[in-house]
Write a structure and sequence with these properties.
- With 151 residues, this protein is of the alpha+beta class.
- Helices cover 42% and strands 15% of the residues.
Length: 151
């Protein structure tokens, strides 16, 4: 019962890690979706990589570069996740986002610092990124199994 009570109490508490990470990213001029809150930070990949078209997969590019820089796994929420229309053309969503999720009671402030610093490092190099080309696309769930190569 005590564990259940603690769980209920924590579920009502704001996730201060997310607020901390969002503020830290904004201090590095990382374009994030506001207001900050919920379970993670969403970075605006179109604003982060404005020189890339959606056919160059800006959110997937950003997610890959963050992973290469720091080993932090994020999630693309853009044209790759949107899939294709019945005629085979890509859906082009209005937003190209990269989600940095933060489960409760897992990461420390030092982890949040590493994530924000990695985003800052990638932001400094952003103009050098040319995007990605999809080289393999499964019939279903392409955002989990597609393969890309750098342009």
């Amino acid at each position: 019962m005590e564990a259940i009570a603690v769980g209920i109490e924590e579920s009502l508490d704001d996730n201060h890690q997310v607020e901390y990470l969002g503020q830290k990213m904004m201090s590095y001029y990382i374009p994030i979706v506001r207001p900050i809150g919920g379970h993670g930070i969403f970075v605006d990949a179109k604003a982060f990589l404005p020189h890339l078209t959606q056919d160059q997969f800006p959110a997937q590019t950003l997610a890959a570069e963050i992973y290469l820089d720091s080993g932090v796994r994020t999630m693309e929420r853009g044209v790759v996740s949107a899939g294709r229309k019945s005629n085979g053309e890509n859906h082009y969503p209005k937003l190209e986002l990269v989600r940095f999720t933060s489960p409760r009671r897992v990461y420390t402030q030092a982890h949040m610092d590493v994530i924000a610093e990695s985003a800052s490092e990638v932001y400094e190099k952003r103009k050098s990124f040319k995007g990605l080309k999809m080289i393999y696309e499964p019939k279903y769930l392409r955002f989990f199994q597609a393969k890309f190569e750098k342009l």
